[in-house]
Amino acid sequence: MTVAPPQLEPELAEAYRQCADRNVLAALNPEIFFGYFSVCADPAQGHGHDTTFPGLDWGQSAEALLWLGRRAEVLASWHYVTTFLREDGLLPFAIVPSQAGTTVQMTLPKTTESYPFVVAANGGAYAHWFPGNPLMMLPNVTFVQVADAIFRHTQDRRWLAAQQPALRRVLDWMTRQVTPEGLVRGGGFYLERPPRLDHDGVTQCYTAHAFRLATALTGDARHALVADRITASFREKFWAGDHCVEYLHGTRGAISHHGLTDVDWAAIATGLATAEQIRVLWPQLRNNRDFVYEGIPTGISTRPETYEDWEMLHLDRHDVAAMGRVWYLEAWARHVMGDREGLLESLRQVARTGRANNWHWRERYYSERTGDLGSYRINTYCEYPANFIRIVHRFLLGENT
User: Fold this and answer.
1) Which range marks the domain in which residue 23 is found?
2) Which of 56, 95, 113, 356 has a CA 20 to 30 Å removed from the CA of 273?
3) What is residue 105's DSSP assignment?
4) Reduced to 3 states, what is the DSSP secondary structure of residue 158?
5) Which of 301, 397, 297 is nearest to 345 (CA)?
6) What CATH number is associated with residue 382?
7) CA atoms 370, 372, 378, 383: torsion sign
8) 52, 135, 281, 317, 371 from 195: Cα distances, Å
9) Does a structural domain hold residue 123?
10) For the chain, how many structural domains are there in total?
């Protein structure tokens, strides 16, 4: 049985143990290969028994496994993902061995429009089928974050030196996605519907943060200059007067009418918001119950009912939900702002939701304002458990930061 950090109150200590034993560790499956872990504690429930998602799913579980002492598995998984790095520096957002070399046409409901989901001969899917290619920046940014997590835990400079060629290719590709004015190309960082085309606010925040991490990992000061360019652009183009712009659409301009969103949390967490912007934002964010969907943090918007059909290409709205990836941004922002009590309460909310579900968590939770959408009810998803472990160590206990 996993031993929880002794500083935790009993409710959170029990949740920590269950997150580890019944979820993150349960998702390890050496029968696929040593170091493989699924996105679900019970992979039969969805998303493929041998599929790896080299974006947030991979990065979140990898860091949680590092906190749980499973360095060997994480290093093996890192090596596996690195073998899929393309010559141009792009990583796949999904590795699907069972579909290697195939192309499936994805047809939009109620239309004759279809788009190809292409899996390369090596099993890597390098572009999303959804028009506009959301998640484009996700795998490369996550790769930098995981490199940082591994180095923070191991302090192994020989390992870091050996990763420099791969990091250089990944970062060169990322640099080419930043326009001269500092906008990062690509749609939603971790959202498919809404895809947030063409410039997602969370993408801007996470990409700038990754370039700052890269400066320390590579010793190359040019990465900090790219981060500075993105930051300056964000502060100018993603501020709507009293909250952040959610995304910049190619023809419709700045989209900022869905209330407060995850972009507001991200701007504080990653340091892209100015001190004055934070002064305006924080009182609105700190105790805002509209980010709580079905009793759990954190929804992507305080007005989820206002998303329009055109924003989804008339598909379902399954990402208009509370998800662990958004909760991590909230927790990070609370840590930056020194809001320990708010952080503790969010951990308690997540713990109570897990306890009520036999210590498992769903992939998404939906706002009462939009109704139960009934989609993606995967019930043993590892995102909330992995982030619970990360948040406890990094933000509540302040370790290894």
Assistant:
1) 19-89+131-396
2) 56
3) E
4) helix
5) 297
6) 1.50.10.10
7) positive
8) 21, 8, 24, 10, 21
9) no
10) 1
For residue 316, what are the contacts with CB-CB under 8 A and spacing of at least 6?
A: 193, 373, 375
**Cα–Cα distance between 134 and 304 in angstroms, integer?**
20
Under DSSP, the state recorded for 381 is: B
Instruction: Say if residues 281 and 273 touch (Cβ distance below 8 Å).
Output: yes
Instruction: Render 332-349 in DSSP notation, one character per residue.
Output: HHHHHTT-HHHHHHHHHH
Structure tokens at 87: 């010559």
> 247-249 and 114-118: which strand pairing?
unpaired
Whether 229 maps to a domain, the answer reads yes
If you average pLDDT over residues 9-29, what whole number do you get? 98
The answer to whether residue 401 is domain-embedded is: no
Instruction: For 385-398, write each residue's pLDDT tens digit.
Output: 999 999 999 999 99
Residue 114, phi then psi, degrees to nearest 5: -140, 155
Q: Residue 125 domain-assigned?
A: no
* 158's tokens: 């020989």
By CB atoms closer than 10 A (0-12, 13-18, 19+), residue 48 is: middle
Contacts of 240 (CB under 8 A, 6+ apart): 254, 256
| pTM listed for this prediction | 0.97
